[in-house]
Amino acid sequence: MTIIDWINQVLVHKKSWDSFDESEQKTFSPYILNRFLSMDKEFIEVVNYFQRYSIGFLENREIYNFYCHLLPKGKRFNKYIKAKKEKKYKEWLIDIVRNHYEISKKDTIECLSLISKEDLILLLEKYGVEDKKIREVTK
To answer: Residue 32: pLDDT above 80?
Structure first.
């Protein structure tokens, strides 16, 4: 069974845990179920509170039964929230900013996403970067 099948079982069908065969029961993942259920604004607080106890402490049967009995019956659509893609920066740009502020590479990448275009241009001009390269990274 897929995660979508398990979500439908918890929210729509609500079959007994014992009605699933052993191979289906092995596909049950509390972590993934918590992750998908937390995408629903109405469930996020319950899932957040319950997940402290669900992973590692309770058996899959107990987690499944908890969600079946607690959550209202009915199909729901929740858009999957993806992580934001990190903007890629040129290595020479990272080196200049890192050396200027004397910070780590990770902090530099975060800093580049926050620094204004005008400040970045001034910084690059200060270090003698060609206008062509400046336009390339600030477009």
So the answer is: yes
